[in-house]
Structure formats: C-alpha cells, structure tokens
Amino acid sequence: MNNPPRDGSSDQRERFERVFDECFDAIHRFLSRRVGRQLADDLAAETFAEALRVWARFDGTRAPLPWLFGIATNTLRHHYRSEKRMFHAYYRTGVDPVLEDVELDLAQRLDASLESRGLARALAELRAEERDVLLLHAWADLTYEDIADALSVPIGTVRSRLSRARAKVRNSLRASGQEQEESLPLKRTRR
Amino acid sequence: MNDDLRLLKEFRSEISSPDRAVVARIRARVLGHGTRERAHATDPMRTRRSKRSRIGMGRRASRRGLLIAIAVTAAMIVIGSSLAISAGKNWYFIGGGGPNASDVVVVTTGTWDGHDWNLAAYRNQDGEVCFAVTRGSSPTEFGPQGSAGCSRFTSGGAVGKLVFPTLKNEITGLWMTGQFNPDTVGLGAYFAGAVIDKATSVRIKLANGSTIETETIAAPTALDLPIRFFVTALPSDVEVLQVTATDDQNAPVAQANFPPS
C-alpha cells in the first residue's frame, strides 16, 4: 500500500493523490449512507487502496469518480448483511443509525419521516445487485453508461435492474404508507 | 423528479462529509508514510503533539516512561513466549530478527477510551506476516517502543507470526490478546488477529458468557495475502474461550479454542 504505482512515475503518483483529494468525500459519503460511518472508514480506505493498486491500468481519459464508485461497490459485497441490518433498524426504530454519532438531539433523530423509514425498508428488501444499481444512480448520480462500466455489466442489465428496483421501491413505499397510516403513531413533534 | 428518486436523494443528503482527521488518517494509510506529515497537517491531535514536543514537555521522558511501563507489563504477562525485538525497514517489531519483506502498513486505526491505536502488519522474508496493535495512529508515532503491543500470545505457535504455507487450512490465524497497563499506556485488553479472507465477521466467546462480534477488515494490498484482520477491545480480566469466524452467509469458516489444544 505504501508502494508507488507500478510504473513508478511520480506524475502518476501525484495524479492519484489529486484524485484521492477530489473524490474521497463523495466515496465516503456514499459508503456511509450504505453501511454507516465506522465501516465506511474501512471500506473507503479499501477502495482507494485497490484503486492505487490498479492505477497504472486506469484509462486517464475517463473520469475517475465513476470508476471509484465501481470499486467501492465491490468492496461492499462482503457487507450486504450489515447494510440490510442497518436499513431494517432504521425502519423499525425511526432512528437513523448513520446519524447516531452525530450531534443531534434525540427528538431530531427520531424525527425521521415515515417516508424515509419506508424507504429504508424498501432498500433492505431489494436484491443486492438491484440496490447497487439503484444507489449508484440515485446517490452517486452515475449515468446508465457509467454504472455499466463501473459494475462491468451490459447497459441493458443496468436498465432492467434499475427498472425492477424502482418498481419494487415504489410498491414498497405504497405498502408501508398504508401500514403506517394504520399502525404507527403520528409523527413526533420536536421539543 | 419521481417520488422514489426524490426520496432517495433526500436520504443521501443527510450524510455530511467525513471528519478531516479521519480523512487524514486514511490518506496516510492508503498513500503511505511518504505523505504522512502532509496528511496530518489538518489533524488537531497531531498538531497538539508537535506543539508539546516543541515546547519541551518531556517527550523523551514520557517515551522513557512508556518504555519502562510496557517492559514491566510485558514481562509480567507474557506466558510461555519469548519476545525478540527486531528492526526492519526502520521499524521495530516482534519477530525472528530478519529484515522485513514489505513496508509496515497500517491495517486500521481507532480510539479506545480516548487513546488512538492502530493495527499494523508487515511480511517478513520467510513469507510470514506479523502484526500488532500499538498506541497512536501509526506504529511509529510513539517510537519503536510502541511495537510492544504484541505483548501476550495465547497460541503456542510462533511468536507474533502467522504462517501461510497451507492456505487450504480453514483456519490460518494466530489469535492474540494483550493487556497494557491502562494507567500508563491507555490501551486496555484487546483481541486482534487474522483469518482467511472469506471470513467477514468474527465472534469471540468470553468466559463470562458474553459474546463479542466484530467485522473483519481487508488486508492492505501491500501485504498481498488472502487474509482479513480483526481487532476489538475486550472487557478487562475476562478470558477468551473461543473465536469463530463466519462468512457472509453466517457459516463458520474458522474456529480456534483457548487455550489452544
């Protein structure tokens, strides 16, 4: 990890350092939203370490961010269960686990909208590959082409996964909206 | 924009950027020690330590005290193991005395009771990987004495080493526990180890009946080994009975009992 890129060029190394500085926050926020801040630290480091390892093979004419999102998504594959647990916890409690370590008062953290809780459940119930495509589109703002490139799948696969994922999320949101109207307490008011 | 996408984007927008000190630590971990000083430039902890050093608050003296404390503690708790301190690539570590085959890389860092620690590892020239938990955000932050983090080993195997000639074995880790004197060093009991890379989490069964579960961490690419690491703080004065590593389907893939049979 401490070794320079394979071609040994200091220019290459400097370019990678610039990419790190420009892209790290976006990658970390993406990972944090998916698995929580603590694990995101590790996975962000893992993402950039892997990127550094293969940096010499990266096509410098491409934008690095979609490529990094692809690597970050790969690093998440060992942590799908953690991600699902986190979304389920958010749905059940209304407390966003990602924001637990942030200085927010309890009322503020409990003030998650019913829609957000429903969304958390919907995300937890998606298949992993559908969730990957949906979140790369919605959270990483990648185009279909970028997602296909990042995940090394055909663009048609991206379209079909995204379509299925969005349909499932919409259905789940409708269903959870009905359930919440019937069973959940009204939205809490801030103190 | 459709409701589902709008909601998703709102969901994302709640997440703020990472803390600058965290970014600096990860930058140093990924890009190596060559950029460490630059990476720490925005780390308030680093700045404070440098200032303390500049104004002569006895860093040398505190190092000496630290060394003595660790030496005394290690002497008391090392069971059936002998420690050989070696210097390789400008870093001291417990090992066989040979030079390192790789740089020392930080696997992960964290904070226990307000004290920074790091898990660092390297490969030696025998194809083995050595690792230790030491105080500070890098293994060199407190000087070579910080390497005494490998203080106690419950395995009867090689001291401070993992041997990976037979990766077909389901368990390839050497598990270790350590106990520093918290009054002088600040790190309490912990459990760190390495395991085959299909293990995604580790369950540690303690003698008091409780279980600690922690997720494994990918090995830095510089090690070029199919392993993952884990590290967790332990309650003080509680023996470890068993460690079970599981894969992403929650199936056990490696297990070790203590004391080793």
> How far apart, in Å, are the first and last alpha carbons of chain A?
49 Å
Shape of chain B: globular
Name of the CATH class of chain A: Mainly Alpha
Q: Give unreliable regions of chain A as ranges.
A: 1-7, 102-111, 184-191
User: Could you say how many structural domains of chain B there are in total?
Assistant: 1
Q: Would you identify the CATH architecture of chain A?
A: Orthogonal Bundle
- Structural classification of chain B: alpha+beta
Q: What percentage of the residues of chain B does DSSP assign to strands (E)? A: 25-35%
Task: Summarize the amount of helix of chain A as a percent range.
Answer: over 70%
- Output the helix-strand order of chain B: HHHHHEEEEEEEEEEEEEEE
Query: Radius of gyration of chain A, Cα only, in angstroms?
Result: 19 Å
Strand order in space, largest sheet of chain B: 6-8-9-13-12
Indicate the mean pLDDT of chain A.
Answer: 78
Secondary structure blueprint with pairings:
The complex is a heterodimer of chains A (191) and B (261).
Chain A: H1 10-35, H2 37-53, H3 64-75, H4 80-93, H5 106-110, H6 114-125, H7 128-138, H8 144-151, H9 155-183
Helix pairs in contact in A: 1-2, 1-3, 2-3, 3-8, 4-6, 6-9, 7-9, 8-9
Chain B: H1 3-13, H2 20-31, H3 36-39, H4 44-54, H5 59-77, E1 85-88, E2 91-94, E3 105-112, E4 115-123, E5 129-135, E6 152-153, E7 161-162, E8 176-178, E9 190-196, E10 201-206, E11 211-215, E12 217-218, E13 227-233, E14 240-246, E15 252-257
Antiparallel strand pairs in B: 1-2, 3-4, 4-5, 5-7, 6-8, 8-9, 9-13, 10-11, 10-14, 12-13, 14-15
